[in-house]
Amino acid sequence: MPEHLLDSRLQQDLAFNSAMEAAAALARTHGVEPQGHTTPAVLRVAVLAMSRGADRDTAARTAGLKSHEFRKLGGHPPC
């Protein structure tokens, strides 16, 4: 998602904005800060990939994360 579209959506949809801020805070808490990417956008890409049937590792790669970084977000061992 282009950054300007994400910014527009964040400004227009307060619930979406809150969810993305919470996701970014969760990522930071678990030490996941994708280099060169906006964390909320990266998490959104990963979640969308999973909602479309991708497994965790594929979703991570789709979003530009390493599999272990994405798994750390769940706070429990991988399935």
Task: Write up what this structure looks like.
The structure is a single chain. The chain is 67% helix and 0% strand. The chain has helices spanning 3-12, 14-29, 39-51, 56-63, 67-72.
Class from secondary-structure proportions: mainly alpha
- The count of β-strands is 0
How many helices? The count is 5
Main β-sheet, in a few words?
A: none
Could you estimate the helical fraction of the residues in percent? 55-70%
Low-confidence stretches: none
Secondary-structure element pattern, one letter each: HHHHH
Q: Span from first to last CA?
A: 29 Å
Strand content: under 5%
Taking Cα atoms only, what radius of gyration do you get, to the nearest Å?
A: 12 Å
In one word, what is the shape? globular
Mean pLDDT: 77
Can I get a quick summary?
By secondary structure, the protein is mainly α. The chain contains five helices and no strands.
Topology:
Layout: H1 3-12, H2 14-29, H3 39-51, H4 56-63, H5 67-72
Helix pairs in contact: 1-2, 2-3, 3-4
Q: Which descriptors would you attach to this protein?
A:
0% strand; 5 helices; single chain; mainly alpha; 79 residues
